[in-house]
Design brief:
2 helices, mainly beta, 6% helix, globular
């Protein structure tokens, strides 16, 4: 995800463009229709970029859509609270266009923190040759795990994103590059793949204010869509298998050199690699309509010999969501309203291993549990109440700091 500093002028230009586009669409109101985001049994996580609701018009080649997230938060850490706060977390805008037969364009822009930053999460041109062979280039979403691609707020019962995705991997990670993807079918079975070569990470994953190995820091580099710090391509690949009746399993890998090894043709450092392996799955128990979504990831990072053991060379994280509908029926004018109970378990270990001198286990871990209630008047709109309890253990494994947080919020496509 590339971040762009937005001045008052840039905001004004963007608002004017959006207003003009909306006005043009309004003039063709009689021909407009909305593409609903109903789940298709053949949809996979790799289809998330296009499985969104869009406003379309017969006379317009461009379709528009988006979603918004907002919530209140009341948090207590070790008995101390900063009180109640309200958060306007993000506004995402989707635009897509058919350029020509078999050639299309899709982009997603995200505005965070009340407009302080605007980010391009995805902006790619697709060339479709065959269901099994399609080319994509531009700013692509690295398909590591499932949440990185399928992260839209209205799809989830929880205000916070999974710790593994946000604080171990770099959630909504995208890079400049190109690659291929495709799907094929055999009865109830669906097979999909994605493969990309892109720019990669940089030294900020180990040289940062967190004083630990922290992959999300690489997203803050404003130049990473214009140049590749290491000069070596990063490879990301994923294989997915889905049974329409059983669910989907995905296996993904991302790896490459993250440090700069040469300067003006002279070697200045040995190569240091970053490798990530992830598993994801989702299923629905038909008898009870219970949805289960889970993901786990492992990272291996080559560490310079000058770094201390508080910087992890191995990391592991996982989460699992269970969503149980309690009531599904018509409510007021909403035909498919539902009330759901959900629960999430989060775990991250940023530093797997033991201290060489003492043989004791290294800490730097987080465990969190989050029960939730959500109400969905429509599948694309969710009102949610979450209670999150979190335990953070430092590198030396001192008694865990405990944090309790209440959230009430909503997220909706538009």
């Amino acid at each position: 995800m590339i971040r762009i500093s937005t001045s008052t002028l840039a905001k004004s230009i963007f608002s004017l463009m959006l207003f003009s586009s909306t006005l043009s669409q309004a003039q063709e109101q009689d021909s407009l229709n909305t593409k609903k985001n109903n789940q298709d049994p053949s949809d996979m996580n790799m289809d998330a970029a296009f499985n969104k609701p869009f406003l379309t018009g017969d006379k317009s080649p461009v379709t528009l859509g988006g979603y918004i997230e907002a919530n209140s938060i009341y948090s207590t850490e070790e008995g101390v609270s900063d009180g109640l706060a309200f958060q306007a977390r993000r506004l995402s805008l989707f635009m897509s266009a058919n350029i020509a037969k078999r050639i299309s364009f899709m982009t997603e822009l995200e505005i965070e923190d009340g407009g302080e930053e605007m980010a391009i999460e995805f902006a790619a041109v697709d060339v479709a040759l065959d269901p099994l062979l399609n080319f994509r280039g531009g700013i692509v979403m690295n398909p590591i795990g499932a949440f990185n691609q399928n992260h839209d707020g209205p799809k989830w019962e929880f205000v916070e994103r999974p710790d593994m995705a946000v604080n171990m991997l770099a959630a909504t990670l995208s890079n400049a590059g190109f690659g291929a993807y495709g799907k094929t079918y055999s009865g109830n079975w669906i097979f999909g793949y994605e493969t990309y070569i892109t720019n990669g990470f940089d030294n900020t994953i180990i040289s940062n204010e967190e004083d630990k190995t922290y992959l999300p820091n690489a997203k803050e580099n404003p130049d990473r869509f214009m140049e590749n710090h290491s000069g070596k391509a990063t490879f990301t690949g994923k294989l997915s298998i889905k049974n329409r009746n059983l669910g989907e399993i995905g296996i993904s890998y991302m790896g490459g050199t993250y440090n700069k090894t040469e300067d003006d043709g002279e070697e200045i450092e040995d190569k240091a690699r970053l490798d990530v392996f992830a598993l994801d799955f989702n299923t629905t128990i038909q008898a009870t309509n219970t949805r289960i979504i889970g993901e786990a990831a492992w990272t291996w990072i080559d560490m310079p010999s000058t770094y201390t053991e508080q910087y992890g060379e191995k990391q592991f994280g996982a989460f699992i969501d269970v969503v149980q509908p309690l009531y599904q029926s018509k409510v007021l004018e909403w035909e498919n309203a539902s009330l759901n109970f959900a629960a999430r378990f989060d775990y991250v270990d940023w530093n797997i291993g033991k201290f060489d001198e003492t043989g004791t286990k290294i800490g730097d871990e987080r465990i969190a549990v989050t029960p939730a209630l959500s109400f969905r008047p429509t599948p694309g709109t969710v009102f949610r109440i979450n209670y999150r309890y979190q335990w953070d253990t430092d590198v030396m494994r001192n008694p865990a700091e405990q944090t309790a947080t209440w959230y009430f919020g909503f997220s909706t496509y538009f």
